[in-house]
User: What shape does this take?
Amino acid sequence: MSNQNTLVKLSVDQFVRTATSSDRKETAALKLITDYGPILDHFNDVVFITDEEGYFVFVNKAVSEQSNGIPSEIFIGRHFTELVEPKYREFAQDSYQKALNGEKIVPAIEMERETESGEKITKEVSWKILPSNYVETFLMGVSRDVTDRKLAQEALKRAHDELEMRVKKRTVELQKANELLQKQIEERIQAEEKLRESEEKYRGLFENSGDAVFIVEIETGIILDANRQAEQLTGRSRQELIGIHQIQLHPAEDAEYYRKKFRKHVINDRVFDLEAEVVKKNGAIIPVFICSNLIDLQGERVIQGIFRDISKEKIISDLKDELASRKLIKKAKVIIAKHYKISDSKAMRLLQRESRTQNRKLQEVAQAVISSKFILE
Assistant: This one.
């Protein structure tokens, strides 16, 4: 038995020993862990699966990394509320019940706790009911550390409050200005305020955008400006980005492709969308979706490119494709095994042989078997 199968059997055995479980539930749990376990173990967030009563059936390896090396098997069979601070249990149980009842939108809940070292951390937990093709009802939960995000929000609020206080103070000072010059001062303030608001409005949208934004010179393709998200996306500072050609954001081997896209965009003078790749400073390739248009900025015509990181969407899509492919191959294998009255392993070898013979992907051969009822000779 492989290490993976051993862990699956151990998880199910512990679940059976510590929670009321029928044979049907045990079978469903085993299939569930086999389907999801190898995939979920690659996630950085803690991902777990419970039965409808709230007992853990599976916990991925990330829990060991975030709990000082405690094996994930320790949690199997325990009720999820055992790991929740008493003050949050009713809150967590209510959220869990909403997901179990099939509510379409169940907001994630945040729970704060203190570590042994005295550090306060905040966890965000969300639930989702799994597809009903496992006979029994199971829920998947994700526990994510959002401590840094909470600290950033608090810091932003403090800065906002301080800014408001300064604005109020400045307003009082202006109101005490010389009444003889009030009319002239008000006219000047109004003119300057409109200009400042116009510039700050764009700058605020530019800097606080959730996507990377690049401003590029039309004639040369040189980057004139980039926001904070652009720095994060590329792994380069704003100073490093400004002055380079926008083609350098992409893989070198595809330079000509992106150069043609750039020229066509400038000539057509219209908005265009493009799925592309960006090379980080460390060499990593990041899939992005680009929305680009020509705008007037401070009296000059420039290109504004908005780059959205679609890495997570790609991962989810790949995982869905992988699961679909496995189900397809399994179904074809059953058809062949039944037809020839052979074992699943022999049926699998027959599929693999045909895949090599036809020089086609395994899932393509499997689809042919299923859709046409074609039986391999």
Q: What stands out?
A: Residues 122 and 151 are 10 Å apart (CA to CA). Residues 318-372 form a domain with the Arc Repressor Mutant, subunit A fold (CATH 1.10.10.10).
